[in-house]
Amino acid sequence: MPLLSSYLTELRQELRDSGVVRTEEFIGNGTRETWILRNIPIITASVSVFLDGVATTHYTINTTTGILTFVHPVNAPANGTEIEVIYSSVKYNDSMLCNYLKKAIEKVESIYTIGYSVTGTNMGDWTVDAPVSDLLQIWFEMTKFLLRRDNLKLATEDSVNWRDGDKAFDEVPGVIAMRGLLSQQWDSIMWDLERLILEGTIGAMKAGGATPLEYGAFNATGPGTDDYLWWDGEVSDTPIWEMPEGNPIPDD
After folding, report:
1. Within this chain, do residues 65 and 125 fall inside the same structural domain, yes or no?
2. How many Cα atoms are found within 13 Å in the side-chain-facing hemisphere of 186?
3. Does 199 map to a domain?
4. Terminus of the chain with fewer CB atoms < 10 Å: N or C?
5. What is the C-alpha to C-alpha distance for residues 176 and 156, in angstroms, rounded to an integer?
6. How many CA atoms lie within 13 A of 240 on its CB side?
7. Rounded mean pLDDT of 55-64?
8. pTM for the predicted model, two decimal places
9. Between residues 251 and 220, which one has the greater pLDDT?
């Protein structure tokens, strides 16, 4: 199973958050070991550090705070050493995106039990069965929805408190527009998910079976003739158009 983090590059492309390349320069004084980069968060793999034009790996970097620390055998660069740091800053750090992607997968599973779950005890070793491209796209759309929903909550709180100077009155209509766009995005996700379920269960839909869609409608082999449709954790042969209608924007 691939690591959940292996999908972050594609997810960043979806979010238009692939990073902005930055260059910062400092001068060593022989005693200082720690420097702070101005643009955060940072993509870990994008960092390159040069001392007098020579690349070094003798440093640690906190991608959330931007703190760069030189370690043995460099420690504090000698007085007059030219330090050049090249890196890419982003809007969302890897841990946040990984966490939201996990939430998105769980949210999709709460709507239809397709049979995917994130395994692993730590964010660094979270894995999930590889989905087909259409399902991966739905995961990405759900991730974007959850991010935007939380941003909307913050914006709404600010707009409610506009009398206290947190938000200008003329920004309230923007918050209302954001809510409308979020509702449209949710409807789009539901439509895509239902379409995928229909395509995945184009064969016989019948009760029975031990696991969700156990004949592999959502793996690389495509729909099988005996795929099962699961709804709320149970196998069902009820056509999707007879399922309960609609879902409000979820609170969690």
Report:
1. no
2. 18
3. yes
4. C
5. 9
6. 20
7. 94
8. 0.68
9. 251
Which percentage of the chain shows pLDDT scores above 90? 46
Residues 235 and 128 in one domain: yes
d(CA 147, CA 95): 13
The average confidence (pLDDT) of the chain is: 79
Question: 54 forms bridges with which residues in the sheet?
Answer: 51
Q: Roughly how many angstroms between the first and final C-alpha of the chain, as a whole number?
A: 27
Exposure string over 8-38, b if 16+ CB within 10 A, otherwise e: beebbeebebebeeeebebebeeeeeebebe
Q: Within 13 Å of residue 113, how many CA atoms lie on the same side as its CB?
A: 12
Q: Is the dihedral of CA 136, 141, 143, 144 positive or negative?
A: positive
Question: Using CB atoms within 10 A of its CB, is residue 225 exposed (0-12), middle (13-18) or buried (19+)?
Answer: exposed
* Residue 42 and residue 137 share a domain: no
Summarize the confidence of residues 234-248 as an average pLDDT: 46
34 residue type, one letter: T
List the domain range (segments joined by +) for residue 57.
Answer: 19-89
Beta carbons of 229 and 197 less than 8 angstroms apart: yes
Q: Which residues contact 133 (CB under 8 A, 6 or more apart)?
A: none
- Answer yes or no: is 248 within a domain: no
Is residue 146 within 8 A of residue 104, CB to CB? The reply is yes
Least confident of 22-26, 69-73, 191-195: 191-195
**pLDDT tens digits for range 194-233:** 877 766 554 333 333 334 444 344 544 444 444 444 444 4
For residue 235, CA distances in Å to 197, 206, 214, 222, 232 come to: 13, 8, 11, 19, 8
